[in-house]
What does this fold into?
Amino acid sequence: MRMVTVAAAVVLLVAGCTTSDATVTDKEIADDARGPFTMDEVAAVEEFLEDDSRGPVSGLVPTASGVLALFEDGVASFDVDPVAEAWHLETSGPVHDVSVGVNGKNVLLRHGADLGPLPRNRTMLLDVSNGRVIESSTGWGETVPGETHLMREVWVTAESEGVLVARSLADSDVVWERDLAGTCSSGSVDDVDLASAGIQLLVAYACVEDGSSHAAMLDGNTGDPFWEESWQDASAPRVHAVHEHTVPGGPDDPIARMLNEGLSGGFLFVYGSEANGVKPFLPEPWRSAPGVGDYADEPLQDFEEAPHEIVLHSSPRAHMHDLVLVQAARWLAEDESVPFSKEDIDDSLLIDGELVQNPDQWRTGADGYIGALEDELAEAFP
It folds into this structure.
């Protein structure tokens, strides 16, 4: 069991005459901490916190450096191997929302900071490896409503009437606004959904009166769209961004749900940029093993049909292929109606007799393991 040293680094944030938030870091643990590969590792942190004196945990958020636990008045980051607290920050008011950056290395924390009867709120950008405060700002008035989406230079919320608002990480001043209703022939918007991929923001919504649904990719620096699609008489798709720190089977992972609920035929995987546009792509294993389509429908490959869900990746496209391939292989091997099982997988691809849940579990030589698994599925599902 790793020993927790008494030595700790304390970082103080002072904003005007306010009471400071403080980060306390155990450097020995923080230096070696890694993010979780599986939901079992997240569950181990949850179990570790069952009797924590800080009270009930309202959420557990995977990052590149561990699992971030949300308490009523603070956050704490935990290494997963073994479970140990790397750092904690006690806030001067209740935690409202957190958002992890696309590389999993930063987190935006918003919390209350009332001064007597006067409502205030604080926004803090933290380094998740040690809890260091990178940027912070304090604002008067009620907390900005809505879920936060952290981008490279701004943070974005969807506010009332379908207006997207981007604020600076440095001072929370408004950088840009975009009214989604401007693309509707008339009326308002509903079912707004956002997914951040760093400098790009994937947006989906429905126009209430004309019955159309829309998807767009916005430049995170300006809010201007560089790709748009619309479909008539269709519900707004759900949108997702898969990152390198996304944990398979976790609440932010759409792939496990896609397979378990038989939804792949309504999924659309996309990639792109402002320079090259947005394009759909067919992920593994369907690309190399088309016979998989007999058991799980191929995802959509164009924009003609309205998708039910759109998946964008912030990491290299090869990582998305690897993530879908591994999860599909596990799903196929565990489904008794499919003529494929764990016994059909070479032992060299297993860890402790089980196929990995996350390609990152192959610490070295992952490309070789992925190639071998592709070959086995291609042979089994020609």
Summary: Residues 17 and 115 are 10 Å apart (CA to CA). Confidence is low (pLDDT under 50) at residues 1-19.
